[in-house]
Each structure stands twice: as C-alpha cells, then as structure tokens.
Design a protein that fits this description.
There is one protein chain. The chain has 319 residues and is mainly α. The chain is built from 9 helices and 4 strands; from the N terminus they run ααααββαααββαα. It has helices at residues 2-12, 15-40, 63-75, 120-127, 159-166, 176-179, 183-192, 266-281, 285-313, and strands at 130-133, 142-145, 208-210, 242-244. The strands form 2 sheets. A two-stranded antiparallel sheet has the order 1-2. Helix 3 (63-75) packs across helix 8 (266-281) and helix 7 (183-192) runs antiparallel to helix 8. The radius of gyration is 29 Å and the shape is flat. The structure holds heme C.
C-alpha cells in the first residue's frame, strides 16, 4: 500500500526534479566542506616528484648515487638513525652499492671479492664501526671492530638515551622509503623542505617547521590572529604541514664527495640519501622489475602463438 502511494506520488514528479533535489544537498555539502577547508588551510604539502633513476618499468639504481647516499647516511644521519635490518655484507651483495664482480688487480687468487663477506670495500666499511659484543669469559661486554656479518649498530645504547638526546626516538631508516606515503619523494622533500615557520604561528622551542611533515598547526596560531570565536581572522591560514623534532640535518658542503663533478648541496645530498634509502628498503627491486618484464614478453609471445594457431585452426583452408 505505502509503496503504491509512493509510486503514485513519484509519478507526478518529473525524474529531472527528483534527480535535482537529490543532487542539491550533495552539491551544497561539497561547496560547504570545500569552503571550510579553504578557510582553515592546513593539510600537508604533496611531496616533490623527483626523477629517480629507479622510476618506471626499466628503472634501476644509480650505483654511484647509492654509494654517495651511503656516505651521507654514514656521515650525517647515522649519528641519530639506526638501520637495524641492514648488515654490512648487504652492501656487497649483487645489486648493492659496493658489489664487485671480481677483485681489483693485485689481489690474491684465494679471495673472492664477489662474495660480500670477502669484499675488501665491505670489510673496510664494517671495520670502521664499533660493535658491542660479549659477554666474554669474565662476563663483560666488549667492543670490537665490525665484520661484514654484523648489522649496522644503533647510535644509542638504549631508547632512554635516544629520547634524552632528541625528545623522541629517531625512527629506524631501514624501511623508511617504503613506510611513508610518497617514499623516496617524501624523504627528499622532507630533507629539503625545512622552512622558517610563518609569522602568525608559534611553534614553540625544540621543534622545526616542515610543510611536508604531517601535522596540525591550527592550535599554534598566535592569539592576535584569532577572532573572538577562536577562529583564524580573515586572510589567516593554518600553515601546511607540521613540526618535528629533527633539526634540518643537511647543509651545503657538509659531506665531501670524491667525485668533483657532483655538487655538494642539500639538494644533491637529499637525492643521494633518498636513492640509498630506497635501495635499503627494496634491494631486490631491479630483479623484480626484470622478472616482471620477462613475464610480459613471455605473455606477448604466448598470446601471439595462441592467436596464430586460432587463425590456423579456424581458417577456411582444408587441411
Ligand atoms: C640529530 C639527530 C638526527 C639526525 C642527524 C638526523 N635525524 Fe632524522 N630524525 C631525527 C628525529 C629525532 C626524528 C623524529 C622527529 C619527530 O618525529 O618529531 C627524525 C625523523 C626522520 C624521518 C621521519 C619523518 C617521519 O615522517 O616520521 C626521516 C625520513 C629522517 N629523520 C631522515 C633523516 C635523514 C635521511 C638524515 C640524514 C640526512 C637524518 N634524518 C638525520 C633525528 C635526526
């Protein structure tokens, strides 16, 4: 019965009208929320899209860039950030920045440099790190130089020390390029994106403004920029991004590159360390892409054969 009445009533309204009356509130809602978002600003700035060598189906790591990125990590980032899933030997594995197919001339025959554990560059890098080991026979812990089998040591002996030094524990960077939306683009943008906080916000001590770092600065607007309801005054926007407890770690000329051709700038360092952290997070990316391509080629050829045989079987010719 109710349905019958409804149908009768509906009949009197034209479809157009019904559609319009349903759409109007939607449209109004869209305009309204858009308006609110605009008035308050905020949000996080989209990461810059870097043209990485590893983008696209034929992408590959730029070995020299990964090596430089490792240098940046070692000389700058490693004083705060761990890399706990990475062992020194990974650096010498196939596809790694210090992999060698064979030893340089003059090496004894019994050394296999293609083996990451015997690779002299990897051994030298590992030996520069102090590794806490033990306990020894008398029950004491001791430090010794690293070997290729060791993992990158944590810069802090425990969480408490990390918090004491930074206010928070600096996150491990092993999977950072995979863990954050935007991946290496985000890392690059974060490292190059530190800015002076706008005048109308008060971010407080010990934190640094970065429009690419997710956050909400709506409560950081200085009182003189708010109206009597606590809303930002006309023309005042909540700045994009947020604040973090990492001081801008890079400055020009902080790392000395062996290759004179490569600029020693924040921009270049950020690209190189982004490339390194991408390799760290996905060392097998190159072989994954290669396999993908092989599968595609195989499918194309297979598809061709299937099509040809279909034509053959269904052709009008008598066999
Ligand atoms: C002096 C210590 C210090 C140094 C040096 C340092 N960082 Fe950090 N970093 C931190 C701290 C602390 C945080 C956590 C900040 C927070 O959450 O407020 C952090 C956070 C990060 C984040 C995570 C941001 C997020 O989205 O959570 C990345 C990525 C990062 N650092 C990369 C680097 C790289 C790359 C370098 C070297 C070029 C570096 N950091 C050098 C202390 C440091």
């Amino acid at each position: 019965m109710i349905i019958k009445i409804l149908v009768m009533k509906m009949g009197k309204l034209s479809i157009k009208r019904v559609a319009l009356s349903a759409l109007l509130p939607l449209l109004a809602g869209a305009l309204w929320t858009g308006g609110v978002a605009q008035a308050s600003g905020g949000g996080t700035r989209e990461p810059v899209e870097v043209e990485w060598s590893f983008n696209g189906p034929f992408g590959h790591y730029d070995k020299a860039a990964v090596q430089r990125g490792f240098q940046v990590y070692k000389q700058v980032c490693s004083s705060c950030h761990s890399l706990k899933f990475v062992a020194f030997r990974h650096l010498g594995e196939k596809g790694g920045p210090f992999h060698a197919d064979k030893c340089p001339a003059g090496f004894p025959d019994n050394i296999d440099c293609a083996n990451p554990v015997e690779n002299p560059a990897v051994k030298a890098i590992a030996a520069e790190y102090d590794i806490v080991d033990g306990p020894d026979e008398s029950g004491d812990m001791f430090t010794r130089p690293g070997t290729p089998a060791d993992y990158f040591p944590n810069p802090y002996p425990n969480k408490q020390m990390a918090i004491l030094a930074n206010g928070v524990v600096p996150p491990d960077l092993s999977l950072m390029a995979k863990a954050r939306a935007g991946g290496p683009d985000y890392i690059y943008s974060l490292l190059t994106g530190f800015e002076e906080a706008p005048d109308h916000v008060d971010i407080g001590p010990g934190v640094y403004y970065n429009p690419y770092f997710p956050g909400d600065l709506s409560s950081a607007i200085k009182p003189e920029y708010l109206d009597e309801h606590g809303h930002p005054k006309e023309g005042i926007h909540v700045p994009e991004g947020g604040v973090l407890k990492m001081k801008p770690p890079l400055v020009d000329n902080i790392v000395d590159y062996a290759d004179e051709e490569i600029p020693e700038t924040v921009d270049q360092y950020a690209k190189d360390v982004g490339q390194f952290l991408m390799w760290v997070a996905e060392p097998k990316m190159e072989s994954r892409k290669q396999t993908g391509l092989m599968v595609l080629v195989y499918l194309l050829i297979f598809g061709g054969i299937v099509y040809a045989s279909y034509r053959q079987i269904w052709s009008k010719d008598e066999h």
